[in-house]
Design a protein that fits this description.
Number of domains: 2
Largest sheet: 4 strands, antiparallel
Number of strands: 6
Strand order of the largest sheet: 3-4-5-6
Strand content: 15-25%
Distance between the termini: 28 Å
């Protein structure tokens, strides 16, 4: 956390074991889940399920990379995302290798990229699956394959970062997992004005917090993360929740972040808690 910043910002520290944990967790899960993903899309004939298999593969591998980053206390977004991208590429590559291995009835295990690409080119001529009578071939099939790979790689990097996208106490060298929630509160009339007010150090908003008695209506939420060890790191977040009815008259909630992890003092923390 840098001096003078209004909001929490990761220090950029990597941690001695951070990259090791990320790579071990990532590589092992990429090989295992990449193979499982390949067999799922080969043996299950419902093409539309591939979307969910793809999300699952990229998401789980990414989460495990992030878990490695968290265990290794890595607070460097660039390193976390980069390793997430690399591991995501590995998961996608393993998926292609195993899928082709299954497609050839376990006769061809093509590990080299040039061999893999050559075989995929042969398959793209006639295609391998159809959806509603349409069989993608050539560039159309390449586009589908590219989209699947982008989803896996992108999700892996995104989920890896999401796991460690939280404050870290540099004094106690611990992640601040615990979060105190206050609300639901009365809706915020002007979110932009409130954000500007809080950023300039005007906290009068918290002197008269009003709870929302109707849990089914739009409301605001306040949450505070703090380090229980040193009791010196406090971070405030405020969100606006709009409650609407969809076409089926079912309740939908649309959450908008007004501020996230604004650095506050212990005095303000006590002041907010007293009003809650």
């Amino acid at each position: 956390m840098s001096q003078g910043n209004l909001y929490y910002k990761h220090s950029g520290a990597i941690g001695l074991m951070g990259p090791v944990y990320m790579l071990v967790f990532g590589v092992v899960s990429a090989v295992i889940l990449g193979a499982i993903y390949a067999y799922l899309i080969y043996y299950i004939p419902f093409i539309y399920l591939n979307f969910f298999f793809t999300l699952g593969c990229g998401g789980i591998v990414g989460y495990l990379v992030g878990l490695g980053a968290k265990l290794g206390k890595t607070r460097n977004p660039t390193v976390v995302v980069l390793i997430g991208l690399i591991v995501g590429l590995l998961a996608s590559y393993v998926g292609w290798v195993v899928w082709l291995y299954a497609l050839t009835e376990h006769q061809a295990l093509l590990l080299m990229p040039n061999e893999l690409l050559q075989f995929l080119g042969l398959i793209a001529v006639d295609g391998v699956w159809s959806l509603f009578g349409w069989t993608p071939t050539g560039m159309a099939l390449y586009a589908v394959w590219a989209l699947e790979a982008i989803m896996i790689v992108g999700l892996c990097a995104t989920l890896a970062w999401t796991v460690v996208n939280m404050p870290f106490c540099e004094r106690c060298t611990k992640w601040i997992d615990a979060e105190e929630s206050i609300g639901p509160l009365a809706p915020i009339a002007n979110p932009d004005e409130l954000k500007a007010q809080l950023e300039r150090g005007d906290y009068t908003f918290f002197d008269s917090l009003k709870k929302n008695t109707d849990a089914e209506s739009s409301h605001a939420k306040v949450s505070i993360r703090h380090c229980p060890g040193c009791l010196q790191a406090f971070f405030l977040s405020v969100k606006s929740v709009a409650v609407k009815l969809d076409s089926d008259k079912k309740k939908e909630e649309e959450e908008t972040t007004i501020i996230e992890n604004l650095i506050i003092s212990s005095d303000l923390h006590r002041r907010i808690k007293a009003q809650a």
